Amino acid sequence: MLTANSGSRLLIIDDEAQIRKLLSVALHAHHFETLEASNGGEGILMASTDHPDLIVLDLGLPDGSGINVLKTIREWSQVPVIILTVKEREEDKILALESGADDYVTKPFGMGELIARIRVALRHTAKTEARPVLDFGRLVIDLSRRMVLVDGKPVKFTPTEYELLRLLATHAGRVMTHRQLLKQVWGGQMINTDSNYLRVYIGHIRKKIEKNPTKPKVIITEPGVGYRFVE
To answer: Quick check: 186 and 158 in contact, CB under 8 A?
Structure first.
């Protein structure tokens, strides 16, 4: 079945030929076009000349760190980048996200999960026009009126709670790190604040929008990293 982002061109930057082949076969089966690069230098060149719609980037490359490749691409492009990594350390994931990655998947990974992350990233990028109303079914956020409806009924939020919810919702599907949330909602003076401070506010928001706040389905915790708003 064709989807809205069928035919999108994806660039795979990975030094393992077997991984590149596996990804290409799977992505072709889902109607994506693929390009392949076996090292960072080649990947940067192809990203600049072939204009892919999304990049799948391995962090461990033979000619340097994938983080450096990501930072170089971010100097001139906002193309979505999904990180593939065997590194499970929270620090590595946080560094990738704060360097401009849109998402990450840890090896070994499920192909279904990767395809879903790719589609979310492409869908988010395709939303070029202003969206004054974010409709997630039972949760609706009217950005123009700063109003939140749950099951059709308005729910009161403090200014800080609203800004935090708005930031997560406008980046739906993406992981936002603790540092990113603290900086963008409270300002630079808060970026070194303990994440427990943020956790309190997330708890308040969950009580207002989740059917079961103890088992959240909308705002998901990414342990040690941050939070993800699930569409």
So the answer is: no
